[in-house]
TrEMBL record:
<keyword id="KW-0560">Oxidoreductase</keyword>
<protein>
    <submittedName>
        <fullName>SDR family NAD(P)-dependent oxidoreductase</fullName>
        <ecNumber>1.-.-.-</ecNumber>
    </submittedName>
</protein>
<dbReference type="InterPro" id="IPR002347">
    <property type="entry name" value="SDR_fam"/>
</dbReference>
<dbReference type="GO" id="GO:0016491">
    <property type="term" value="F:oxidoreductase activity"/>
</dbReference>
<dbReference type="InterPro" id="IPR020904">
    <property type="entry name" value="Sc_DH/Rdtase_CS"/>
</dbReference>
<feature type="domain" description="Ketoreductase">
    <location>
        <begin position="7"/>
        <end position="149"/>
    </location>
</feature>
<comment type="similarity">
    <text>Belongs to the short-chain dehydrogenases/reductases (SDR) family.</text>
</comment>
<dbReference type="InterPro" id="IPR036291">
    <property type="entry name" value="NAD(P)-bd_dom_sf"/>
</dbReference>
<dbReference type="InterPro" id="IPR057326">
    <property type="entry name" value="KR_dom"/>
</dbReference>
<dbReference type="Pfam" id="PF00106">
    <property type="entry name" value="adh_short"/>
</dbReference>
Length: 281
């Protein structure tokens, strides 16, 4: 079986955060990377003239852009060996305070985009698996997929959807050589919250005051990279201890969270508003 670092890898959301760290790590290992982002200036700043990286301006939430992105990968390299679904948005607040278009946008990017881009790339991944013995789909999910905590209710729902999609997809393609993985981070120092509230940083300098508190994105990128060399499909929490969020799926824990959190809606609303204000002012 060839080294994963001789493969062509598509990474969505490569202009910042986890995606940017993943692109850098894969390139250092020798992979040929195609990455995308919605804003070309920020993407250019992220990848510069790094050899082995192709940047494409595309919004994974839009069907035409997804099709164009796959075409660009094939035009550039003639094959596709792995996909890393990283692009995503979050929105902090209670459901009753969310604009409808924000709900639609988060679902379109975080869930529909992952499923549909996988559908478009799957024939090429199956071909790669026939040729080399393996191909990979890696979805950057969240510990919120296991424990749905306000004020991230809609975001959590999309990640729970990704979790279910990955489990089903594994049962379709594992025997045909496609490994399917999820990497589930705890809070990460990224721009996701500012972006989700309509304030995407325009440069690295602009991003400094908009980053959410959390772990270094490079720690998540390391686990994504390990997935591309794993023997089978992985579901991994980053950091590992955050996998305790799976306890939220147990009925007794879930019922306790229902009772406790639902009595604190006003406090949750105020806490979310302060967090957003700090990252968007």
């Amino acid at each position: 079986m060839p080294s994963p670092w001789s493969r062509v890898v598509l990474v969505t959301g490569g202009s910042a955060g986890i995606g940017r760290a993943t692109v850098s790590r894969l390139v250092r290992e020798g992979a040929l990377v195609v990455t995308c982002a919605r804003h070309g200036e920020r993407l250019d700043e992220a990848i510069g003239d790094v050899p082995g990286v192709t940047g494409v301006v595309a919004d994974v939430a839009h069907a035409d852009d997804r099709a164009m992105l796959v075409d660009r990968v094939l035009d550039r390299h003639g094959r596709l060996d792995a996909v890393v679904h990283n692009a995503g948005l979050g929105w902090a607040g209670l459901l009753e305070d969310m604009p409808g278009e924000v709900v639609e946008g988060i679902v379109a990017l975080n869930l529909t985009g992952v499923i549909e881009l996988t559908r478009l790339t799957l024939p090429h991944l199956l071909t790669a698996a026939e040729r080399t013995g393996r191909a990979d789909v890696v979805a950057v999910s969240s510990v919120a997929a296991w424990s749905q905590i306000p004020p991230l209710t809609v975001y959590s729902a999309t990640k729970a959807g990704v979790h279910g999609f990955v489990k089903g997809l594994r049962r379709e393609v594992t025997a045909r050589g496609v490994r399917v993985h999820t990497v589930n981070p705890f809070f990460v120092e990224t721009e996701w919250l500012a972006r989700g509230h309509g304030h995407p940083p325009l440069s690295d300098a602009d991003a400094r005051g908009r980053l959410s508190r959390g772990i270094d994105p490079a720690r998540v990128a390391e686990q994504i990279t390990r997935c591309l060399d794993a023997r089978g499909g992985r579901t991994v929490a980053v950091p590992r201890w955050s996998g305790l969020a799976r306890l939220g799926e147990l009925p007794p824990v879930g019922r306790t969270l229902d009772r406790v959190l639902s009595t604190r809606a006003d406090g949750i609303r105020r806490l979310a508003a302060r967090a957003v204000e700090r990252r968007t002012r």
